[in-house]
Amino acid sequence: MTRAVAWAHPRFGNLLATAGYDMKVIVWKEERGQWVMAYMDTNHQASVNAVEFAPQEQGLRLACASSDGTVSVLTYMPDGQWHRNVLQGHPGGAQTVNWAPVSYRDGVPSSSVRLATGGCDNNVKVWRCEAEVWTEENPRFPYCHSDWVRAVAWRPDHSSVLATGSWDNTVVIWAQEMEGHAWRQLAKLSVDGKVEGLSWHGYSIGAIEQYQASMRAYDGHFEEVAKVQESGYTEVPGKLSAPAMSAGADGYGQAPPAASAPAAEISEQQQAVLDAFGM
């Protein structure tokens, strides 16, 4: 049974990774309208729960989280071979992986390669790769969850903002002044169910919970603005008229003066909720 799928960036062709309870990670390639196996890794000793390709600027890399407690990173090398690194990540099982976005300075991408992981030890870890050697970053990520960490998500436009979601019914937003500094907690959100996934949309964060889904938007602080369930979209009264957040000098955002939002803006916020869940 397949548990996870992920697409590679189109620059690498039509590549799809799959993984599941059979403990295998398979990379598939489309050739002349047919899908063929390009690579298979069989080294995990338990189910593989999550797979994700790195940003295309960092080459063809695939991170895989497994219930055997490890995270493997498969890297396609110039000689046409796949190189496998193993991160001894989470006793009891690794559940989730997410690559940090690539930051640019003067139009040049940073060489920093970072990966966040979470697992059954209730912990979050951030890893760094230098010269194909992986190490856990110091200072270590703070301990804050009391149950499995099932989701980690970097804000797409900021490699120093990270959200973590847990079966303890909380989502925590973290910020780091710069790489190598300690992480600090920006907000801790209580939700109705166990968090199974997270998705950023601009300054808003969507939390996918067991049996339901909700969206929480950053407008100077985090608050719930809507729910998306099988029955459809439900607005939280009085929330979608709140001011949207603008970027501040520190890059984390600041709230503008309060004002009533026009109908068009409210409609855009509603669509942002749906976009976060692919609807």
UniProtKB/TrEMBL annotation:
<dbReference type="Pfam" id="PF00400">
    <property type="entry name" value="WD40"/>
</dbReference>
<keyword id="KW-0853">WD repeat</keyword>
<comment type="similarity">
    <text>Belongs to the WD repeat SEC13 family.</text>
</comment>
<dbReference type="GO" id="GO:0031080">
    <property type="term" value="C:nuclear pore outer ring"/>
</dbReference>
<keyword id="KW-0653">Protein transport</keyword>
<dbReference type="InterPro" id="IPR015943">
    <property type="entry name" value="WD40/YVTN_repeat-like_dom_sf"/>
</dbReference>
<dbReference type="GO" id="GO:0051028">
    <property type="term" value="P:mRNA transport"/>
</dbReference>
<dbReference type="GO" id="GO:0005198">
    <property type="term" value="F:structural molecule activity"/>
</dbReference>
<keyword id="KW-0811">Translocation</keyword>
<feature type="repeat" description="WD">
    <location>
        <begin position="145"/>
        <end position="174"/>
    </location>
</feature>
<keyword id="KW-0509">mRNA transport</keyword>
<keyword id="KW-0539">Nucleus</keyword>
<keyword id="KW-0906">Nuclear pore complex</keyword>
<dbReference type="GO" id="GO:0090114">
    <property type="term" value="P:COPII-coated vesicle budding"/>
</dbReference>
<protein>
    <submittedName>
        <fullName>Protein transport protein SEC13</fullName>
    </submittedName>
</protein>
<dbReference type="InterPro" id="IPR036322">
    <property type="entry name" value="WD40_repeat_dom_sf"/>
</dbReference>
<keyword id="KW-0813">Transport</keyword>
<keyword id="KW-0677">Repeat</keyword>
<dbReference type="GO" id="GO:0030127">
    <property type="term" value="C:COPII vesicle coat"/>
</dbReference>
<dbReference type="GO" id="GO:0006606">
    <property type="term" value="P:protein import into nucleus"/>
</dbReference>
<dbReference type="InterPro" id="IPR001680">
    <property type="entry name" value="WD40_rpt"/>
</dbReference>
<dbReference type="InterPro" id="IPR037363">
    <property type="entry name" value="Sec13/Seh1_fam"/>
</dbReference>
